[in-house]
Amino acid sequence: MPAPRSLEPLVHTSVNEAVYRRLRDHLMRGDYAAGEVLGIQELADAFGTSAMPVREALRRLAAQRALEPMKSRSMRVPVISRARLEDIRRARVLIEGTVTAWAVEHITNEELQSLRGLATQIGQSLADPRSVPDGLENNQLFHFTIYRAARSDSMMATIESLWLQSGPYLRATRELMHSDERPSAEFHAAIVQAIARRDADAARAAMERDICWAFDKLTAHRAALTGA
């Protein structure tokens, strides 16, 4: 098993929820690779908690199809097939595109201003290899600011599940973030501009282009998917 990551200890308030949210965010950002085993005691030691909240968090994540149980009672990040990845891609394009269009009707000026700042930071991170982790975190904040603006709890639950399932495989695109194949900073700028114009169709199309970039690159770089 890979060496435990340096994870910050958690405060005691709502430890179960805190452990779940921390693991959820790591999975969404692709901090764990496809096929990686997550040991209960190793995670408990890293978080500074007992095994119980870790076990409960892993159980919840398995129910969301982000992890799969092993005979050792540990959990593993699933190894995904090309067909499954394409299925997730279709679902994300459909659902997240739709929710982005909904957000156009409800987003506040404060949320829009936050999006502008995040888009700028993401663009800056593409120019500096040292800023990839910050860029990934800002990308997650950017997307979920939009999705929350749609004011749909039901859709948010579905989107979180899709991000959990796709995150470990999108980590394969990290090596492309500062290559000639890196995504354009214009992806996020176009989304913000369309939302600011209250153009739902353009916002949906811009979001779909942003989502498709990583999945299309993963399909093209098959070796990164399989670990070969």
TrEMBL record:
<dbReference type="InterPro" id="IPR036390">
    <property type="entry name" value="WH_DNA-bd_sf"/>
</dbReference>
<dbReference type="GO" id="GO:0003700">
    <property type="term" value="F:DNA-binding transcription factor activity"/>
</dbReference>
<dbReference type="GO" id="GO:0003677">
    <property type="term" value="F:DNA binding"/>
</dbReference>
<feature type="domain" description="HTH gntR-type">
    <location>
        <begin position="13"/>
        <end position="80"/>
    </location>
</feature>
<keyword id="KW-0805">Transcription regulation</keyword>
<dbReference type="InterPro" id="IPR011711">
    <property type="entry name" value="GntR_C"/>
</dbReference>
<dbReference type="InterPro" id="IPR036388">
    <property type="entry name" value="WH-like_DNA-bd_sf"/>
</dbReference>
<protein>
    <submittedName>
        <fullName>GntR family transcriptional regulator</fullName>
    </submittedName>
</protein>
<keyword id="KW-0804">Transcription</keyword>
<dbReference type="Pfam" id="PF00392">
    <property type="entry name" value="GntR"/>
</dbReference>
<dbReference type="Pfam" id="PF07729">
    <property type="entry name" value="FCD"/>
</dbReference>
<dbReference type="InterPro" id="IPR008920">
    <property type="entry name" value="TF_FadR/GntR_C"/>
</dbReference>
<keyword id="KW-0238">DNA-binding</keyword>
<dbReference type="InterPro" id="IPR000524">
    <property type="entry name" value="Tscrpt_reg_HTH_GntR"/>
</dbReference>
